[in-house]
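Assemble and predict.
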Amino acid sequence: MSFLFGGRPQPSSAEKIAAAETEVEMVSDMFNRLVQSCTKKCIPTDYREGDLNKGESVCLDRCVSKFFEVNVKVSEKMQGEAAGRAGGMGMGM
Amino acid sequence: MAESQPPNAPAPPPAGDAGQAAGSAAKAAPKAEGNPALRAMGLPSRFKLPSRNWMIFLTLSSTFAGFLIYDRYEKKKIQKKWCTLVSHIADESLPTSTMPRKLTVFLSAPPGDGLRPARDHFNEYVKPILVAAAMDWDVIEGRREGEVRTKLAEKVRRLRQIRGEVAENPTEPDSELLVQATRQTTGIQEWDGVKGDLVLGRHTWKEYLRGLQEGWLGPLDAPVVPTAETASSSPTPADSPATDDASPTAAPTSTSESESTTPTANDDANKSEAPLEPQQEQPQQQDQQPEDAASKSKTKPPAVLTPYISPSSYASAPLPPSFPAELDPSGPIPFPHILGILNTPTRVYRFLTRRHLADQIGRETAAVVFAASRAYKEDVPTSPSSESSGPSSSSSETSASSDNSPSASSPATSTDAYATATTSSPYTWEQKSLLAHEEKEWHKSAHKRAENEGERPWLESIVLDDRIATRMRRFELEQDQEQRANRIAEGKEGVLGAEVSD
């Protein structure tokens, strides 16, 4: 997440725990958003049975795959911008 | 009279008119007021027809528009019919621990054109039905001649390695293998039914057959190519020792892809320590090139590889131990594509009759979706006057049965060494003649052979090994499904299992 420069001191255990906590929160947040978004798109509101049918399965596969690709692309872009700015301003992302 | 003088000149015409009017006094009154029929009905009778030129224009444009609108309306209805036929499959339940059925679609840029027409053709005719049936598919695309063959052969070789065959240079595991391994560990099952290949167009079909045979009958390792020439200097013949089982064609083919294969060729040549003395200088020159190219090739393998086995060696190649009893069924899809300004009438005709194509392709795709397959037919040639000898002779070097196949239309089978060198097989396989009529429409640039070019799967006639051909199957729609489709078209039936809203 954050890249440390050579001069910074190592994070203490409290900071490491905090970083881990934020990461867990981020992952679960992403999971929830993913589930919500793909359910809205792929599963029609009028269903009669609990099993996923093939149409919904395939749609969910594609939705999840697209979500992650978008995620990756956006984060690449942001990291690129942040790296560019960090070089100028000396700040980490 | 002075008054009568000036009106003399204008007098006779009005007098004439008045005379005429007086003569046709009975018609004068209704002529001035419009159509008597309309007047009699009480409708306003002030309308008149447009002029002659407008009439011509309106007739032509409205007939064209009429043809177009009718055709598109019918096409939509036909596609809806095929979609309705298959959409009950999308409602079947699928447990979350099973992968859906994944087809493989082979798309290749038609000769003389780019990839976009192929993609558009797929999106317009094939995709709606696949989407309606909730099929998942994987696309193998090829921009140049030979790419689809390369990719398919790579895929088959990879499959063989997964099934246990050992290669000298095993392909590196990539993300695909990792994903499969993860699936195995988590307990997710692959689809256990038949999968299937959809092949669009005759050119892609030829490459598909070549790639299939190259993958199954060819070696797992790339044949050692004699030291490739530099791309800049003129091609010099290589003196290195003969390659192993494959291709005398490897030498000329290497020049065509010299830029892309110099890395591999040089690696092989350096490893095998062929007598490089006459070529000591060349590797040094080439070292700089492969270093530049190798860094590129590390990220991406070359698009078109030299084939690992040439068609003439199909019959002598052993079947691999991992060869399945039946290959995945295939569905060749017609892809009419014609270029050229003189072909404009044909193209306009096709533009106005797309409904027939939609029907044909819809039928084929529905057959793929239903996974209803049959074996390919093997028609034994019966005419004694045919060039190919009967099953008795084995040493004749005729152009085998490929020219006798019902495809008599393809003029593209010009000089090809491969067909003449094949052993005569007693069968005229159905695969050879499928979609053969499309070859007439290929752009003439496809028939031009450049110097030192590698093999041209499009131009050479199809060579089929019998062992592979017997194991191939073809998707074909069953009779009762066909009848059900007709009933849907008439409106007597709907989606299978759907609730009727009466």
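Residues 68-221+308-383+403-497 of chain B form one domain.
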